[in-house]
């Protein structure tokens, strides 16, 4: 068990290193002279200033030296300076990480809780109306572009039913204690989390339905039923626990995709997370920030994968007991 | 943006039968109303983009009328105009061509990379498998949209680059699926028999195993097209698509500013994407059921 | 906030708003001033940092004008008024300017503002600000006492007073910034200690800037507001929704004309186009005069005649943009009617093209047009219109998009273009914002917003340079009028429209920023009616 964890961690470390090298190579591929980009952001500059910028950002050194310096700094958490925002990329990203994680967690939580419940409902009566509804919902949820769903919600909630705010995360002007702030954030969170969550809700309900049907046919459920365990208990306890497993596994596998979805949803709702930062940085050609975000989100995916692995083991008696 | 249908592994396929599995699958497919609906949607969308330019010959980039004319106001501009006064219907027709083209091209790239890597890994196993799978996992941890954004930004947003970027970020799933299929089929008797009579590795990979691994790959390819279309739309929405080629995503991206005053500039292209992806998903589901009769019982 | 969006309220107030829109910008504080409250400013600009001494542009200008005081300020006309300097005087030869600072003025950290700080700040700006012509003629500066600054000029420099105002020359605390670090990348630029009416307490890039009242501000009783929050929105729609819901109370620098019209109709808001005379923003079509066809002045003139400014203003900009006809905006003291206007005339266009050997029966002419990305209405829409308009005189135009601003800037700065849409600001005085586009000496490949047209007319250079050192205003006006007349004749640029920047504010906002610098000047007089 301990060895396994160690091996996984080492492997994760190797992946992280590989991502850093990829990041560095991508910086090198960036067209145009970064010094020119920085000078442009300052409002124009002459040759001396450009030379000074090159020196400041280490752009005048040989490539391998630059790679070594980059890796060394990155491992200490220094991903360079943002060309655009004139502050360390790591600081910039850390300030945006919370909102993105909050959005993703809210969307996933919503999708998992409601999705599995819907799937369960549908599985009770595989040929009934609710089952058909889940299938339709799943198809609609998958087929509608997430940013489009968001925009439709903006149209609906901006003018027609002004129940929820359609932009931003907090009202900085509102005074009040931590509880008020939390409520304010939750209020702003509703629409973005709903938009992002709908995609996965659709998938998880369908997945739950399918795995429930499979599990319900399994021997141990038949045994449970034969032993006279109530149907409710069979469904909710024995079967559901097992049906949850594929949902957790898929959610873990999809984490990269979920972050990608968050980029679009954040852009629609001006949610101040990594996604809006990525969007702005790409428009400004702020490569250190863009690549820093790619690195951090990859890190999140790697951590999420490790966690998923762990949770699956907790959920699956066979996996947990077997070792 | 990951395919919802986790492609189910079919029950062990017997050696190629006399009546092809394709014909049998079509029989099942034909009887599913959902799958046929999907097929009809896809045919209609394709017809619209192919025949549209002849039936409605308006240049999608030409300024034809006052900006943001609502649908139905002018008889000759049925779906209104965008913020520059360009015909929305013409945009939908021309945009569909680009969007579908990118979708198909990206799916093709995804399949080629995924199948090649997956089949070698699955067939050879051992060190080759290990190496290729580590490579695959590396690509799997990169958040696909962010990575594609970076690639498109670095190499200019042309349609070709967009398709390539989507392909480059989407192939790991296909590779994994192919690998597991190959690992399963590799151990079947007829494969061992082929190898016993001295067939070369490449012959076994491409001529023996691949045809038998096709059904789940076809399903996967179909779903990949849908995913690629969503992907293209997402990139265009973020302003990362070829600005000189009309596409549905581009229409949404540039119409977004006018959302509050002109619902149609965003709603209509979004609806087209939705319908197309829905069609693709329905067909994909239908194919999945058709190739796996056992699963259909659910 | 009582201004929740409500349809009934809107319709009821629609009539009242129409009246208010007419009178409000001029209505001065007849009522008793109420102090306190928070003003939320909706903003689409994303500042890199807040130190305007080393960063040009409107994004930094708005917060910087609150954080830093300048020596002088301007009202609604181009007449300098006292600010940190309570008086100033030119020597007879106009080569020495002596300013007296207010006594008792302090920085946000409580340290006194002295002539040492002023001299150091002007020096830093002179060395680092992208507008190098602004303070270039300064030869030396002296501080005979802590309250007196003497600026010695190499030659008369009438643009100097304007350069000492608005966002252009902020007064920085020397004891904070003179720390041996490169000022352009000093981390202190993010939350600087300033000298103005408000101090910055929070700066979250891409989200908001919080400015709190500086209690020790040197103008008694000011500022009236307790706090200004500059909230950054991703797009104009979100900002407009925030205005409608009452989340924001003022939206300056809004140029999306449909949204301006929408807010105008909301009934609870006032819309004004005042407050932009200082930046003087012009939307224009620039020609690369090194292009073989475009090197012929007749081709450039023909293109100018083929473009209908009225169509741009009315069809594309909802009737809200004013035509631009020369290098300065109509509100500039140097505006002249005496220029070649190029009013829409297809016959003249065709005739000129024929003379040049193009057009019908002549050689085919194909040109490419660029535009600044992410500005649909002002740039892209006009570029697409130019394409359609020139097709009518037989010129085939292809529109080239740039994926992002730096790409466009690089293409234009390296002179890799035929024609481009562009937006250039006057920045108050021709010496600061106008000359750079036309002087032969400013043809500098690699630098955006230099003379990327490669236009060179020695007569124009002589007039512009002479006007730059002419202390007499009337004589200066004559020289610029002559220069602008010649420039429009040569048509290196076809002026299309003034960018329709508008400020929208809720009716509760009193003393709205309508000075020449608008929100790029201090908002110490703004107050909220409770």
Number of strands of chain A: 0
Shape assignment of chain C? globular
Number of domains of chain C: 2
Q: How are the strands of the biggest sheet of chain C laid out side by side?
A: 15-14-16-13-17
Q: DSSP strand (E) fraction of chain A? A: under 5%
| Percentage beta strand of chain C | 15-25%
If classified by CATH, what would the architecture of the largest domain in chain C be?
Answer: 3-Layer(aba) Sandwich
The end-to-end distance of chain A, rounded to whole angstroms, is 7 Å
Shape of chain A: globular
CATH superfamily of the largest domain in chain C: Periplasmic binding protein-like II
Task: Give me the oligomer status.
Answer: heterotrimer
Question: For the residues shown, what is the average pLDDT of chain A?
Answer: 79
Run of helices and strands of chain A: HHHHHHHHHHHHHH
SS-based class of chain A: mainly alpha
Radius of gyration of chain A: 24 Å
**Biggest interface and which pair forms it?**
A-B, 56 and 45 residues
C-alpha termini separation of chain C: 9 Å
How does this model look, in words?
- The complex is a heterotrimer of chains A (323), B (298) and C (530).
- Chain A contains 14 helices and no strands.
- With 323 residues, chain A is an all-alpha fold.
- Chain B is mostly helical and 298 residues long.
- Chain B has one domain (22-61, 81-296): Orthogonal Bundle (MetI-like fold).
- Chain B has helices at 21-30, 33-55, 88-124, 126-141, 144-154, 159-186, 189-196, 201-237, 248-255, 264-291, 293-296.
- In chain B, helix 3 (88-124) packs parallel to helix 6.
- The model of chain B is unreliable at 1-6 and 8-18 (pLDDT under 50).
- Chain C has 2 domains: 11-274 and 502-528, Periplasmic binding protein-like II (D-Maltodextrin-Binding Protein, domain 2, 3-Layer(aba) Sandwich); 281-498, Dipeptide-binding Protein, Domain 3 (Dipeptide-binding Protein, domain 3), CATH 3.10.105.10.
- Helices cover 30% and strands 20% of the residues of chain C.
- Chain C contains 16 helices and 20 strands.
- In chain C, strand 8 (198-204) and strand 9 (208-213) form a beta hairpin.
- The longest helix of chain C is centred in the C-terminal third of the chain and has 18 residues, at 473-490.
- The N and C termini of chain C lie close together (9 Å).
- Chains A and B meet through helix 1, helix 6, helix 7, helix 8 and helix 10 of A and helix 4, helix 5, helix 8 and helix 10 of B.
